[in-house]
Amino acid sequence: MTPSTATRKKPGSASDPLWYKDAIIYEVHVKAFADSNGDGIGDFPGLMGKLDYLQSLGVTCIWLLPFFPSPLRDDGYDISDYMNVNPNYGTVADFQSFLKEAHARGMQVMIELVINHTSDQHPWFQAARKAPKGSPEREMYVWSDTDKLYSGVRIIFTDTEKSNWTWDDEAQQYYWHRFFAHQPDLNFDNPRVMEEVLKAMRFWLDMGVDGLRLDAIPYLVERDGTSCENVPETHDKIKEIRAAIDAEYDDRLILAEANMWPADVRPYFGEGDECHMAFHFPLMPRIYMALRQEDRLPITEIMAQTPPIPENCQWGLFLRNHDELTLEMVTDDERDYMYFAYSADPRMRINVGIRRRLAPLVDNNRRRIELLNSILFSFPGTPILYYGDEIGMGDNIYLGDRNGVRTPMQWNSDRNAGFSRANPQKLYSPVIMDPVWGYQAINVEAQDSDTSSLLNWTRNMIALRKLFQVFGRGTLEFLKPDNRKVLAYLREYNDERVVCVANLSRFAQPVQLDLARWEGMVPVEMLGYVPFPKIGSEPYSITLGPYSFLWLELQPAPRRNEEAEAAKNPEVMIPAETLADVLAGPGLELLQEAVLPKFVCTQRWFGSKSRTIQNASVYDWATLPDVPDAALLLVDLCYTDGTSERYVFPIALRFNERNIDARDVLVEVRRASDAASDGFVVDGLALEQVRSALLKIIRDGAAIRTQHGTMAGKPSTVAIPENEMHSERSHAEQSNSSLLFEDKFILKLFRRLQPGINPDAEIGRFLTEKGYTQVPPFAGDMVYTPADGEPQTEPTTIAILQGLVQSEGDGWEWTLRELEAIDGEDAGIARYMEAARKLAQRTAEMHAVLATGTTPEMVAEPMTAASLQADAERLIEQAESALATLRRKLADLPEDLGDLAAQLLVQRSKIREIAEQIATVDPATAGKRTRIHGDYHLGQVLRTADDFVLLDFEGEPAKPIEVRREKMSPLRDVAGMLRSFRYAAAAFARTHAGVDDWVEKWDEEVATAFLRSYNSVAAPNGPEDLLRAYLLEKALYELQYELNNRPGWAEIPLRGILKLLDEHRTEATRANHGKR
Amino acid sequence: MASVEMPAPMQMPQAREERVAAQVLVCLGPTFAEPGSTTGFRVIVPLLEALHARLADGPNGASPILLAHPALPSMPEERLRNDLVRSVAYTPASDARTMWLQTAADYRVARDLMVEHQCTCCLMLGAEAQDVAPDTLLAMIDTVLRGQADLAVPCYETEIDEALLNSALIYPLTRSIYGANVRMPLPVDLAMSARMCERMGQAAAKALPGALMWPIAEAAAAGFSLAEVASARRPDLQRGDIDLNGIIALIGSSIFSDVESKAQFWQRTRPLLEVKHIGQNAAITANKGAPDKAEANTLIDSFRLGYGNLHEIWALVLPPNSLLGLKKLSLMPVENFRMSNALWVRVVYDFLLAHRLRTINRGHLLGALTPLYLAWVATYVLECDTPDDAKKHVEALALAFEADKPYLVSRWRWPDRFNP
Questions:
Q1: A112, A185, A229, A257: which is the annotated catalytic residue?
Q2: pLDDT (tens digit per residue) in B111-148
Q3: N or C of chain A: less Cβ packing under 10 Å?
């Protein structure tokens, strides 16, 4: 199209060409909605007055049933003038006002284009009857001298029509009609018919109408020897209409009414060049069938028969409409079943269907109505609501034709349901008046003021659906749980993923869904924004109440919010006089149920924020000696997704104490004897007395009895002064809590307890006792030992005490400061390399001391083929896990990282190759396995004046203690430090522009200097392949961590991994060349 | 660079011969056209010259600056004679001149001028910008020109008792809703890339000329990059006659409406926006000393008065737990008076929801927020003696906003008032 023609196109009211995909369509008859002039018939001014209601309901498109001049023998589908408004409903000017007001509220308007037939009162037909045979006037309709032409074509309105031909005395010929005899079919073989149709269409589109529903579209053209349905020439006519629209208008819609099987409807979309939308007729009865049979099969079967449609096309979905619940598109057995199930009274049946509204069909059961609507709103397509169904209106089966579902809208409990001020006898149709469905009971006004009403429920559901484009635009995939009473499906669109689960049964149902593809993600229930347990590799279990449904949005697991202050319930209060009261009876229950789970989530040391706490229970506790109302609690936290964890909580009860930070308060306490008492249970570490008491337990080697064991201090040879030392909490620690005693000692309280001796205590004590000076002097620890007979008896380290080292900060901070100072100068780089050599020397010395152990826990062991194999497997496992995370997060990564990620994902086999190479290393050349640091990086060393002190031998806190105490190759620590240099370089470059070149050089030279210095001091620890494998494993671990916590940082490990793989490839090529 | 004659104040676009590609458009706010001002836009020239000199020395080479300044048809024609800075005049919206914040009209002007003159960076300056440190503006421009950010905003140092509506509402709400940790989300000075300027122009086109705009939210929704430049204190802005009620109504209504319009964006879980932080400052200072604790009495009295008069309106908006919390707060003696972060967060979220649902008239709603805000301020005054206290207090509040965001989302989606 040329720009000049493009500019001539008339814009629609919507700004998105695909607006209909996200639309909520509301089908309404003007005559039935609101009567403004008291004549008993609804009209456009009345409808206009209700636009605010429709807007508040969330409707985005109003579909008006025919409102044109008509004898009204088929509810307006018998049109006698295409370009006017039925005077009963108002004028063209009224329609224009309505259109303008709807557009002003962001709503589109769709009207009917009934072009298969007209009324027999249409001037065209009257002229045709009188015109000579074969004349253009006569040829506007389909005539025949015989009623045998097109024999065999089915009759649609079987209840009233005996033939598709009717004899006309005036014309002395038969005329063709697929519907009622008073609706002669237009003859699309006559070009003038199309001209007239386009003229009528332009009349309304020029006015601003946004959509046209093409009524009875499969029957436009007749051909002998066919069913006269869906003939190719009909598609040519539709294409002609569509082309005219596309050429002249923007953002308009045509919707096909073709009551056919999906495969037969599919051609009406063409290649995106016929109708934008088409109704999915066969789905509707099958939804009702599935509900009644409590079996999802009817739905999944029909959807399996539904072919894909072009990108710009959309299905129109509905539960009910102005016609009967059509049963044409079902088998005979299915039809019989539906009649038995939903139309016990024969008056409920008409033609080939059931003339009832939604609520009566499901026996006015609110849950069933909600369930069906949930399917309507979440299935692929645009939902179409029939007026009145949002309040659960009833029907009147004693009215003729389908008028029972076309009764006046019920606005309130006033006369005529608030629809009209006319004499009730004057209404176009009686309002529903029976005791259950009557307007006194069911009306908008009542439901509007009832927040629990069906109206408000529908309003909320529509608002929710509109927040997510996935419902209108996403793909559909059925999940196939064994329980067929449950319908479950996945909708996906861009990064939106929603799992919908619906229980079709009247009883509660269990279901297990295969969501393993989304392992690690968290389903969040969309209505209440409630996170469900994280998805694992096992089938995902859900229990659904009768007729209940769930919409679950799959979200990445929440990031760890280190200092998140959860919204505390400010009203929880425990009545107690002493801490013992708090730890017994109702106080304890409240503490466990309402206080501890919330408090722990606000603490930075709590490492499982992404998990959902099911309950907290105090496993054991002891009061602290010499401190009133203070105790150490051991609390088990059970999670919804598996294993529990044990945490230690020092707490104290204090009344009327002013200097307490609100962040340290767990809960308010009030004395029963004094309603004005102002007490709090606080984090004990906030109190100097509690801090001192912990130190004294270690210093004095004291043992305190708990309810189920003992807690005992054990000092080392390092002297601890007897006098009181001032103490404070350190803010540096993350996964534990540290207390500083003047500038002399640091007490580390392990918050998460794991059975077994903590390696930090074990190795700290070992190195101190061996006289190694480059670690903080180990002064003692506190260990909890359960009494005999307890389920778990292994001693557990609670706290350790170390001498405080004066330093210039940890190695990480120091390195960043150094990089700032270096600023690319060679002298600065050389200065740092010197420090790196010193660090390497200290590292090698530490490894040498660790290799001198003699106890079974500490003694060095030779590397074996089995241990190398285990290393290889660990690498593969880490790679699988990291790459799975990468695949899952791929769509969320910044664009520039996408390429890097893709490069990595295709090299999975290379990683496996590297892992397999480890397994082939000769164990004799692979050095020894010893205890190692385990989590070695720049943050774990302190920079002193011209040396380093090595810290924190706890290992990676996320791993179980037994894993952290395993003996491993010291090269793992080396790999950790080399990666840390790389991280420092990258972190620096992120905040400093233009430094990339020299920082990279710094990284390479420092790494080389470190490695050389280490190798010159340490015993041989194995070939380079081994180090590369450990580097790769570390980088993969980093990648996984960053993807889950700081996606913007993922670039660092990604580049690191790709570089390692590249080096491996180069070496492999070199080796191959060597072989040749 | 050749000097450029300033054309007569007139509607854009300007004469064609003016168009020499300029990299940086410096767009002065409408207050620079205040009738009767003895200074007018000329006061900014020294700052622009300083910028020009620094840009010319910078890695981007000489960067022509185009100054867009407001001019009123009623004012005598004024010409800028300067060898370094070219200028162009625009006609400010009639209702925008008394606004000390950037409005939709300002963003529309900026967008049109950016397109007209094909600039790559737009620096918008608010009232009294002549005293802003050139280093700050330079860093903002530089970040945008280097493509490191689409939007660069300053983080000015403030006194401990300043910018409290920002600390109580704008900052933590923006951070929680959009995941953008930018300390001052309603900047009067800002630098934008061409595409950011275009985005703001499009958003502004849908708004009334005097409406406030939320560039951080727009950038977040567009997935654009952000930078925050630490800066020294900005000179006080003259805010005219508007009182606290007026400010809360103006800003509250605007930010609540903006949040509503972007519901589809922020209701999805998204990774935190990375904000490039440039430079360091104290953020909060106490050069004028600690807040006067006696002020808390007045604030608490206002809150109690509000409780007496407005608690029935609050009851239409707030759930029972919050109402109970407020009742207890109203009875607390001054020395114990503390509005918890959790309570304030719920108040803000529930007011936001009531604004969306039009539970009551929006004007009345925001009027009813003022005494509650004063209770928060009283708590702040009582708890914060030092800048460090203030920083911790605001950070804790921001975290509370983030932690309670699921409550907002759940009630947004299911606004049943039958909640705890």
A1: A257
A2: 999 998 888 999 999 888 888 888 899 899 989 988 88
A3: C
